[in-house]
Amino acid sequence: MAERSDSLTVTDNRTGKTFELPIKDGAVTGMEFRQMKTSEDDFGLMVYDPAFKNTAACRSEITYIDGEKGVLEHRGYPIEQLAEESSFLEVAQLLINGELPSKEEHAAFTQEVTTHTFVHENMKKFIEGFRYDANPMSMLISSVAALSSFYPEAGDVSDPASRRAQMIRLLAKVPTLAAFAYRHTQGLPYVYPRNDLSYPANFLSMVFNINEPDYKPHPVLERAFDVLFILHADHEQNCSTTAMRGVGSSHADPYTALSAAASALYGPLHGGANRMVLYMLERIGTKDNIPNFVEKVKKKEELLMGFGHRVYRNYDPRARIIKKLAHQVFEITGVNPLLEIAVELERIALEDEYFVERKLYPNVDFYSGLIYQAMKFPIDFYPVLFAIGRTAGWLAQWREMLEDKEQKIARPRQLYVGNSTRDYVPMDKR
Ligand code: ACO
Questions:
Q1: Model-level pTM?
Q2: 3-class SS at 367?
Q3: Residue 366 CA: which ligand 1 atom is closest?
């Protein structure tokens, strides 16, 4: 038997030439194909992969997903353990710095984030400029981009100290901007951040506090939000993280890059799916209508929102944790009547051949919206809640990208399939 080596042998049948491509970390390098030419002036072979279904664009040490088995780990720590035992700010440190912090490091980091939660007063005026019915996600996207103008030094992305300062600011200020967006849509005065509260409690205070100097959220809801932020903190190279890395690769400042990432998250196929789940459950209305709805999904007339995932071909581990969390929250808020429909819809879908053979399971968005609705968040606000948690991951991925010597400005190739050269035809001759 021939000796095995970590390489791939490719014969180009156009020329009969054979090439040996090294395999590293389970991949061959796309640039290796460029040497495969039919003539000296041939550009060389490219790899066609729309939507990057099988293209690794970076080496990363942050998040590991085994989509077949339904495994999610950050820096090696299983998501179940982080959700059970950690806090969002500790997970943010883990994601950004690579290791769990010591007690002192964590206290210092928490203090830094806590004391950077205020935004410039002009940001309030900026948010006031939006219509009363503006989508809070548009407000968040625009206000994060606007923050860039307050920190011109953020443009120096090569300075590690500046990078760190902006990461602290973004972690601290995104919840403030999110809460201001919420208060604006409700016609309520903005509530300033409070340094005596935890990260999730301060956020809930900025959202829900009406004139209570000692406002404190229920501890179960405070913990539920910490866990929800943890569950959304990172998910490797998804659409929004790809936007963060792509825009960041041009060395735009992190506010601008994070605004682009949040824009990608806005879409209904990504972070906007949690609100689409609620609209879907409301439209279904009663358990009796579920079979009819499922039939429409199978005929491709509808999408079962909150189901399916590019990477998971198994139950999304975050969905399992959120489903459990929902029951704890409902003990405080009262049961969301849509839960019954969601549970039944999941049961029917998981038994149906259509979903089984396509390996479609609930994703993180299937149950999160039910919690948000029970806490009286408006539906349009759900992607904003997702963005607060994901800020940690976007920043960790941005930092890793900038420190990675193999990275350059992102610039995919295309296969040009348009017209070949032709002469311009004057308008009266067309
Ligand atoms: N409902 C019904 N059918 C579905 C669904 C769904 N939710 N998801 C996938 N399918 C079907 C597709 O129609 C396709 O069927 P076919 O083989 O007959 O053509 C098959 O399953 C494979 O799906 P793909 O389109 O290849 O899956 P892809 O990886 O491109 O899409 C996505 C993943 C976008 C998440 C998709 O499953 C979807 O649209 N889900 C609903 C939206 C959603 O919940 N998004 C949140 C994702 S998690 C997140 O971003 C946080």
A1: 0.94
A2: helix
A3: 44
